[in-house]
């Protein structure tokens, strides 16, 4: 119990140590097969998951300053659900349905993650799959299943190991349990290795990323204009170094509707003069409503915009969400824009993949301690959709990754008055299975879950009707 909690704290933290997650659940699942009490089993599983989430209590309450309920509600539900999944595993093992047991918990948790992905404050951000961002061969599975296939294997592995430990001395049954798991894991890794070895694209684009953390948020016209001038000078410097796109972070400051023309007059001339496309995030307040907006400056073209679709509650609850995609005009390749929390959700990233983009720009704002965990979520969207990602986050990282999730360049944004990064990004769009079929895998997991539950009911019925019969 405490071993699982400790492994979760390190393996699923802000700086996740990915190998630990493959063994994190073994102690509590093994315990479920050796103790007599189902109540003790459920309590141990729930407590392990609760204690393992204490790092998120610090993040949500003390970093984001969200109310205690922001942690207490989801992280009291998750331990109860996990306890239910462990009891399902235990019941199947004790009924002799050990093969069903190895897929029951993975299927159950995959379905839970899929349902949770529709929560406005969550999206897919709570998925265990994000612990594997540095395990590149495994990460490639996202191009087929999204994050849920990775979650499934992360839980199938300890389930099979724990079931095999329960069957010690029964070599034939152990092989029946371990072989399917090893076959699926080997197949996923082989696919990942082959995908990573594919030749790179010769088509490239030079992208400049730019941020200053010296000004957290310019909340008045004078400060906003001064900040815009600072960004203008740095953007022009990057343009002279060959940047074809310069990406700045989200919500750099408050832009009143009456000030929009003067603000645009600072940045648009840089684009016209250098031929570089500039993208900067603002909080745009009109007389009717406010938007978390990305303003796009294209050479000799009117200013276009993209409005963030997934707003962060409660901080952005008064803003109006966007609903449309935005493709950068006048570029030789299709390039899209999403903003920060948009990348926690399957859409709009999946829609961009289906539109055939080769690069997605992600102006963002992270919260320092989550720069790795949250900042790298965007990388998985690129693997799913088959395109590169440029991520510029205040209090985070400037990160460029390719369509395989390889980080091409990354710098912290808290170094110096302005942080910058220039990357020569290979461009291609591989239409992935996830592009084509979307969220198909959680539905398959749901079928596995129903089958496992039917098998459990059949096993329990057999036990009650013939308690002395062999399982």
Note the gap between the termini: 28 Å
Strand content: 15-25%
State Rg: 24 Å
Shape category? elongated
Specify the helix fraction band: 40-55%
Low-confidence stretches: 466-471
Q: From the structure provided, what is the oligomeric state, counting identical versus distinct chains? A: single chain
Number of strands: 12
Q: Helix/strand/pairing class, anyone? A: alpha/beta
Q: How is the biggest beta sheet arranged?
A: 7 strands, mixed
- What value does the average pLDDT take? 93
Helix and strand arrangement:
Blueprint: H1 2-11, H2 26-34, H3 38-52, H4 54-63, H5 69-72, H6 74-94, H7 98-116, H8 136-139, H9 142-145, H10 147-166, H11 171-197, E1 204-211, H12 221-240, E2 245-247, E3 254-256, H13 260-274, E4 277-285, E5 290-297, E6 304-307, E7 335-337, H14 349-354, E8 359-365, H15 377-385, E9 388-394, E10 397-401, E11 407-412, E12 419-426, H16 433-437, H17 441-465
Parallel strand pairs: 1-2, 2-4, 3-4, 7-8, 8-9
Antiparallel strand pairs: 1-12, 4-5, 5-6, 9-10, 10-11
Helix pairs in contact: 1-3, 2-3, 2-6, 2-10, 3-6, 6-7, 7-10, 7-17, 10-11, 12-13
């Amino acid at each position: 119990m405490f071993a699982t909690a400790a492994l979760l704290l390190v393996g699923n933290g802000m700086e996740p140590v990915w190998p630990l997650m493959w063994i994190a659940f073994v102690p509590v699942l093994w315990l479920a097969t050796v103790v007599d009490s189902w109540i003790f089993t459920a309590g141990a599983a729930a407590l392990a998951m609760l204690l393992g989430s204490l790092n998120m209590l610090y993040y949500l309450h003390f970093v984001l300053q969200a109310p205690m309920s922001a942690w207490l509600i989801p992280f009291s539900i998750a331990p109860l659900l996990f306890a239910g999944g462990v009891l399902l595993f235990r019941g199947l093992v004790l009924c002799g349905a050990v093969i069903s047991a190895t897929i029951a918990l993975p299927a159950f948790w995959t379905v839970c993650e899929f349902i949770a992905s529709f929560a406005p404050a969550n999206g897919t951000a709570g998925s265990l799959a994000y612990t594997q961002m540095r395990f590149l061969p495994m990460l490639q599975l996202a191009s087929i299943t999204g994050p849920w296939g990775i979650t499934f294997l992360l839980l199938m592995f300890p389930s099979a190991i724990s079931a095999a430990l329960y069957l010690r001395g029964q070599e034939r049954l152990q092989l029946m349990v371990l072989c399917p798991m090893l076959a699926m894991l080997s197949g996923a890794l082989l696919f990942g290795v082959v995908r990573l070895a594919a030749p790179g694209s010769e088509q490239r684009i030079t992208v400049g990323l730019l941020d200053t953390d010296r000004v957290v948020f310019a909340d008045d016209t004078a400060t906003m204009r001064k900040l815009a001038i600072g960004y203008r000078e740095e953007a022009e410097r990057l343009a002279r170094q060959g940047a074809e796109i310069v990406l700045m972070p989200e919500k750099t400051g408050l832009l009143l509707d009456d000030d929009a023309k003067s603000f645009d007059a600072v940045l648009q001339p840089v684009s016209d003069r250098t031929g570089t496309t500039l993208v900067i995030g603002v909080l745009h307040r009109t007389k009717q409503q406010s938007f978390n907006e990305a303003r796009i400056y294209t050479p000799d073209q009117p200013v276009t915009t993209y409005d963030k679709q997934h707003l962060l509650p409660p901080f952005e609850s008064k803003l109006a969400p966007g609903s449309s995609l935005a493709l950068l005009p006048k570029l030789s390749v299709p390039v899209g824009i999403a903003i920060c929390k948009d990348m926690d959700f399957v859409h709009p990233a999946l829609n961009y993949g289906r539109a055939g983009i080769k690069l997605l720009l992600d102006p963002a704002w992270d919260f320092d301690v989550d720069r790795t965990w949250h900042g790298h979520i965007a990388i998985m969207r690129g693997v799913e959709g088959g395109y590169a990602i440029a991520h510029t986050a205040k209090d985070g990282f400037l990160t460029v990754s390719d369509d395989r999730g390889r980080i091409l360049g990354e710098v912290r944004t808290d170094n110096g008055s302005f942080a910058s990064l220039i990357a020569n990004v290979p461009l291609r769009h591989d239409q992935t299975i996830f592009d084509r079929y979307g969220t198909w895998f959680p539905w398959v997991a749901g079928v596995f879950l129903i089958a496992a539950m039917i098998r459990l009911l059949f096993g329990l019925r057999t036990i009650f009707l013939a308690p002395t019969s062999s399982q």
